[in-house]
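Quick one: co-fold with molybdenum atom.
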Amino acid sequence: MKNREVSKSYVRRNTIISIGVFLIFIFASIYLFKKLKGGPQENGTSSTLRKTLDINEKIANKAFNPAKTTRVFDKSEAVQNVRVNGYIGIEDSPKRENYAIQVIRNNGDTLKVSVDDLKKLPKTDVTFNFKCIEGWSQITNWGGVKFTDFIKKYHLENESALNYVGMSTPDKQYYVGIDRKSMIQPQTILAYEMNGKTLPANQGYPIRLIIPVKYGVKHLKRIGSIYFSNERPKDYWYERGYDYYCGF
Ligand SMILES: Nc1nc2c(c(=O)[nH]1)N[C@H]1C(S)=C(S)[C@@H](COP(=O)(O)O)O[C@H]1N2
Ligand SMILES: [Mo]
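Sure, here it is.
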């Protein structure tokens, strides 16, 4: 094989190009880093990242098919020692006699739904892999009322036609906003049981949200109020820099 003759000018040109590309890369990285760090902020993170998350949400939400169910497991596969994570808004224990979910109708009226009211509706249960954005997951079992059955029973069809559902704890310390399609997915339940027993206080007694198409953050423990809106309801972790959508 003939050795290739490499001219000095060829080497020089290539060296300059290499250094040039390297410098452009470095400066672009610094620029991007500065833009993300020092640039405008929106709900606890940079506007640039926020825009990306919002675009992801639009795509995910378009593609989301509420008829498609999350993988379920046999009840026997559910863990017995269910991890407890997050105590915001559930530090004191409520008196069950006084407890009722306040549902705000579109006309401003408030509907009060007690645990006993909910228990009169058909009961379903779901065993699925509960995932937290902190990086853990576990198979858990929950029993309660399908959100769609709740809508039907209380004639909230007009309300649930709006784009979002907002929920908060009775003391308003923890709150979530969830897109309509995820809420009407058939595995979304207002849960009052875990592993066939009354919900423990630290797991949202008397009623919590279980929404298998979302990460743990959206499974609000101890629902105090529910409202419907075309605008995004406020969301505790969104305000602190997390994704609004939090779905898979
Ligand atoms: N009221 C309330 N609900 C909450 C939280 C919270 O801090 N307060 N944390 C959320 C988070 S981040 C997770 S992962 C799940 C944990 O549910 P678990 O304690 O039943 O495992 O609850 C969610 N619901
Ligand atoms: Mo979480």
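If it helps, Residues 8-38 form the longest helix (31 residues).
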